[in-house]
Amino acid sequence: MNKKVDLRIRRTKQSIRTAFFELIQEKGYEAITIQDIADRAMINRNTFYLHYENKPDLLHTCIDGLLSEVKNVIVQCPINENPYSISKLETVMRAILEHIARNTSFYRAMLIEENRIYQFREKMENIIKDKLNEGVNPNAGKSPVPISKELLLEYLVSSFMGVIIWWIKNDQPLSASEVSSQFSRLVAYGHLKNEGIE
């Protein structure tokens, strides 16, 4: 396939995906028709079917693509001896937020409000959980107050997703770096100490 044709195909697919994400935000996944997508992407229905079998195929392709990008972004975050270290949490959070900032409309469609795609959030949580769980040694470190590793991991992942969704929903009111830094301080010192309450 020559480069010109390949570029045209990539642009068409990008146009379809962009139209799809915009429409999810506007009317929700269930209400969208193939004709809606074709009209928004300024293509005909036959062109859509050259690239995707149907609407679920488009959805799964988009989800797989975004999640693959998330994995690629966080796999580069270094692992140290303590996978729950503050520096690791900050690094992973910053990497994810910077990735989201480059793909805001996609993540808004997948994660926000009543039109969100629930399976996307669950899969994204699992990717974050896997990253935070890398290299965990169940015998390392003895907490003065015993806490289940599973509970700790669930708490951290839920906190991660809550911050990510807040950041997207509020149009990124702080930089990725600042949010990551504040998030790591909250995890390190707790919300009471951060508010000056002993």
Summarize this entry quickly.
The chain has 198 residues and is mainly α. The protein has nine helices and no strands.
Task: Give a structural overview.
The structure is a single chain. Helices cover 72% and strands 0% of the residues. 23% of the residues are buried. The protein has nine helices and no strands. It starts with a helix and ends with a helix. It folds into two domains: 1-52, Homeodomain-like (Arc Repressor Mutant, subunit A, Orthogonal Bundle), CATH 1.10.10.60; 55-194, Tetracycline Repressor, domain 2, CATH 1.10.357. The protein has helices at residues 3-27, 34-41, 45-51, 55-75, 86-102, 104-111, 118-133, 149-169, 176-194.
Strand-residue proportion:
under 5%
- The number of helical elements comes to 9
Query: Which segments are poorly predicted (pLDDT under 50) over 5 or more consecutive residues?
Result: none
Q: What is the CA-atom radius of gyration, in angstroms?
A: 20 Å
